[in-house]
Structures are given as C-alpha cells and as structure tokens.
C-alpha cells in the first residue's frame, strides 16, 4: 500500500505545482478555468500538470519568472464579491515595476484602505491579479492576510517586487 505524506496529500489538491525561486505555486483548475492559484512553501513537491489548462498556467508562470513584464492570459473562474472585483481590476492595472498603496487604490475606487487590504488578501489569482504591487503607505504592508515581518508570504512579496525592479522593501 502506498503511503502519502501530509505535503503529498495537500499537493493532490492541485492540478499542478510549479517550483519558483520563492517557493511554489499551486494551480487548481476546474471545468476549463483556473479556479485558484496558491503560494506554497518550498516543502511542496513539484507536480506535473494533470490537464492542458494547468500546463498552460504553469508555462505562463515560467514566462513571468523569466520576464516580469509578462501578462497572464488565462481563463479564471468568477470569484469574489463585486467590491473585490473592483479592487482586483484596479490592481490589475498597476504596471510591473510599480506599486500603489492601499490608500491609492481606495481613492481610485472610492473606498477605504483597510477594505482594499481585505480584498487583496482574498485574491484567488495571485500573479494574475498582482496584489504584491500594493503596499502600505509606510512600508511593505501585509500580504495574503499575513503580516509577520519575516514570514513566508512577506518574503514572497519582497521577491516579486525585487523581480519586477522595485527596491526599498
């Protein structure tokens, strides 16, 4: 009988797991759309794509890792509230290599910075919707509902910003 580790069992949730310099990216697909993308710690094993869409997403992640100007072109599942979609749309317009603050986004959509931060943390499609390009007015801010100073998620955000040429974080 084949035994599986907790990391293997969790990897089974994904149609692919792509290794990246910051850890991994889990890709979930369903019914011809990307259902979710998830930042994963390094202990997750890479997993070959189990369907053509996951393979396409994995290739696009690899392209972004080589070229931070790359723009994703993937069908994604309809997710989020109308407010979250407004936030994600505003974030998607931030060019690679630039950042805006939670307050900047809030002013653009006539909302509050804290609500923008909550929508960022609820993002189902990191990299596609580049929430890493949104920072606090006085520094890096949180990321994916995590704000531990030296934690995994903030290190992902630091890596992505550096990859795109943003310094100071």
From TrEMBL:
Pfam families: DNA_binding_1. Residues 82-166 form the Methylated-DNA-[protein]-cysteine S-methyltransferase DNA binding domain. Keywords: DNA damage, Methyltransferase, Transferase. InterPro entries: MethylDNA_cys_MeTrfase_DNA-bd, MethylDNA_cys_MeTrfase_DNAb, MGMT_N_sf, WH-like_DNA-bd_sf. GO terms for biological process: methylation. Its EC number is 2.1.1.63. GO terms for molecular function: methylated-DNA-[protein]-cysteine S-methyltransferase activity. Transmembrane segments: none annotated. NCBIfam families: ogt. PANTHER family: METHYLATED-DNA--PROTEIN-CYSTEINE METHYLTRANSFERASE. This is Methylated-DNA--[protein]-cysteine S-methyltransferase.
């Amino acid at each position: 009988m084949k035994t599986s580790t907790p990391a293997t069992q969790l990897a089974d949730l994904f149609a692919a797991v792509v290794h990246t310099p910051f850890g991994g990216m889990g890709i979930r697909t369903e019914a011809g759309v990307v259902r979710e993308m998830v930042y994963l710690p390094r202990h997750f094993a890479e997993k070959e794509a189990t369907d053509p869409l996951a393979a396409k997403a994995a290739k696009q992640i690899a392209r972004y890792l080589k070229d931070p100007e790359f723009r994703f072109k993937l069908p994604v599942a309809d997710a989020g509230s109308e407010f979250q979609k407004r936030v994600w749309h505003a974030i998607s317009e931030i060019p690679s290599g630039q950042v805006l603050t939670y307050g900047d986004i809030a002013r653009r959509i006539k909302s509050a910075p804290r609500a923008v931060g909550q929508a960022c943390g609820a993002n189902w499609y990191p990299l596609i919707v580049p929430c890493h390009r949104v920072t606090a007015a006085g520094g890096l801010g949180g990321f994916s509902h995590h704000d531990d100073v030296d934690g995994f998620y903030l290190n992902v955000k630091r890596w992505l910003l550096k990859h795109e040429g943003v310094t100071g974080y």
